[in-house]
Design a protein that fits this description.
The chain has helices at residues 9-15, 66-78, 185-203, 242-261, 307-315, 321-332, 336-344, 348-356, 361-379, 390-401, 407-418, 424-430, 439-452, 454-461, 468-478, 485-496; strands spanning 17-27, 82-83, 90-93, 103-106, 113-122, 125-138, 142-146, 158-162, 169-175, 215-224, 234-239, 269-273, 280-285, 295-296. It has 497 residues and is of the alpha+beta class. It has three domains: 9-309, no CATH class; 319-431, no CATH class; 439-496, Orthogonal Bundle (Arc Repressor Mutant, subunit A). The chain is elongated and about 95 Å long. It binds adenosine-5'-diphosphate, magnesium ion and zinc ion. It catalyses: L-aspartyl-tRNA(Asn) + L-glutamine + ATP + H2O = L-asparaginyl-tRNA(Asn) + L-glutamate + ADP + phosphate + 2 H(+); L-glutamyl-tRNA(Gln) + L-glutamine + ATP + H2O = L-glutaminyl-tRNA(Gln) + L-glutamate + ADP + phosphate + H(+).
């Protein structure tokens, strides 16, 4: 391999035009698998959710899961696709240990949904990403290589395979080649996957979690000189986060520009994205196309969705996430960039539900985007799984509004809620965090503070009311922040006037 000098990103996109294409796999959240009745729950003991059909035992016959077909059609409709009135599943033949049937039931030249688009908005500008097809297939099992240092097959002493995932419905969404993006290709690729995730989540057909693999993305990139034909593409696999989608396109643009600058040529291959370096390394060459010997699946009847059913599904689609964001932004009275941060944090629905549970927009946003977002970041969990529910956040804000706790105490209450100690009112009681506004108890603390700070007290007597802050601080300290500052101030001034 020849060594190449890498250009800067700006140099690369000044000289070459990138073309990108995204293939996204979405694991559907159906209760049972696509062609048998096995459960689909994540994280079960290996090989406990299997049967003769998904293990591909001789004589076993598949039956299509209506919920999987319905979810695929709804995804297609939400992506503005045409829905086929008649199509078939196909066998994609290949041999791999995680594929017990030795073929994957998929779709080939008769996808269920075709010719759609997704509009992606970045800073007020809209980019249309065209969708080539949305098809239905089944997931494979999972291999586990043990005994080696890397978890890869090289150096492993044995390999285990878990078929629980085999047969779970999977929807593949393939874009047409996207051109004309120039230097913005990486960020638009990311924005597309983000929008796609939000749309699918709004349909409730998948939890679309990239870190758990229910949303997976392959990123194709090629470069050409202006006016030339499209270049040869590479396909980056293993892209497991939104940030990685952007980094994969960017690093591949730089790498390919380096090769082309040096007079080399790009080989059509799959490459593996590496989280640590942000680069891709070569994988399987695709120049000799694998022959999958596709043919129509003989054991399943064709899929012929009734037009009335499709129209019904279309009419019942939920509000588009982008329209919903625009509407909520106005309701909440926040800027576009604040709304963008809320969306990026995955907090739109959480804040919406918190408001429905009785909080103000400002109150709801404050907790989700402040304390809870910080916690989610620190622990690396999604905001929705951080340990507090919208109802609890609304209750917390109510306690603050009623003056039962102040902001500082509220943070401690929230800590207890997240730790599973119960609802805010319960945590407040059990941790003894209620604001002390009982004047009897406070009076004693106030008198002690006055006695301990005679100079300050003298100033206040002389009419320098600003000095009262120091005494309020002293009382807050002795009451461990549990006093109501306003009441304390009133008591001090009453004593010293
Ligand atoms: P494969 O199964 O070989 O990956 P697919 O048709 O499923 O092929 O996906 C190919 C993806 O690559 C599509 O998203 C397509 O739009 C995109 N693509 C095709 N040609 C190019 C190119 N020259 N540069 C970048 N992307 C491309
Ligand atoms: Mg592919
Ligand atoms: Zn099964």
């Amino acid at each position: 391999m020849s060594t190449t000098v890498l250009p800067t990103y700006d140099d690369a996109v000044a000289r070459y035009e990138p073309v990108i294409g995204l293939e996204t796999h979405v694991e559907l959240g159906t209760n049972t698998k696509m062609f048998c009745g096995c459960p689909t729950e994540f994280g079960a003991e290996p090989n406990t959710q299997v049967c003769p059909v998904c293990l591909g035992l001789p004589g076993a016959l598949p039956v299509a899961n209506r919920a999987g077909i319905e979810a695929t059609i709804r995804i297609g409709l939400a992506l503005n696709c045409d829905i086929a009135s008649w199509c078939r599943m196909a066998r994609k033949n290949y041999f791999y240990p995680d594929m017990p049937k030795n073929f994957q039931t998929s779709q080939y030249d008769e996808p269920l949904c075709v010719d759609g688009y997704v509009d992606v908005e970045i800073e007020g500008e809209t980019f249309r990403i065209e969708i080539e097809r949305v098809h239905l297939e089944e997931d494979t099992g999972k291999s586990l290589h043990v005994g080696g240092a890397t978890g890869r097959i090289h150096g492993a002493t044995e390999s285990l395979v878990d078929y629980n995932r085999a047969g779970i419905p999977l929807v593949e969404i393939v874009t047409k080649p996207v051109t004309g993006l120039g230097s913005r290709a990486p960020e638009i690729a990311r924005a597309y996957v983000t929008e796609l995730r939000d749309i699918i989540r709004s349909l409730g057909v998948s939890d679309v979690r990239m870190e758990q693999g229910s949303l997976r993305c392959d990123v194709n990139t090629s470069l050409n000189k202006p006016g030339d034909e499209w270049g040869t593409r590479t396909e980056a696999k293993n892209v497991n986060s939104l940030r990685s989608v952007e980094r994969a396109v960017r690093s591949e643009i730089i790498r390919q520009a380096g090769v082309l600058d040096g007079g080399g040529r790009i080989h059509q291959e799959t490459r593996h994205f590496q989280e640590d370096t942000g680069n891709t390394r070569p994988g399987r060459s695709k120049e000799t196309a694998t022959d999958y010997r596709y043919f129509p699946e003989p054991d399943l009847v064709p899929i012929a969705p009734d037009t009335a059913w499709v129209a019904e599904l279309k009419a019942a689609l939920p509000e588009r996430p982008s329209s919903k964001r625009a509407r909520l932004r106005v309701d909440w009275g926040i800027s576009e960039s604040d709304m963008q941060s809320v969306a990026n944090a995955g907090a739109v629905e959480l804040i919406e539900e918190t408001i429905l549970a009785g909080a103000t927009a400002a109150g709801a946003r404050k907790w989700w985007m402040g304390e809870l977002a910080r916690r989610a970041n620190e622990t690396g969990v999604e905001l929705s799984l951080v340990g507090a529910t919208p109802a609890q956040v609304a209750q917390l804000q109510t306690l603050v509004d009623e003056g039962k706790i102040n902001d500082k105490l509220a943070r401690q209450v929230l800590e207890g809620v997240v730790a599973g100690e119960g609802d805010p009112a319960v945590v407040m009681k059990t941790r003894g965090l209620e604001v002390v506004s009982d004047t009897g108890a406070l009076q004693t603390a106030v008198d002690e503070a006055i006695a301990a700070n005679p100079d300050v007290a003298a100033k206040i007597r002389d009419g320098k009311l600003a000095a009262a802050g120091a005494l309020v601080g002293a009382v807050m300290k002795t009451t461990r922040g549990q006093a109501d500052a306003k009441t304390v101030r009133e008591l001090i001034l009453a004593r010293l006037s």
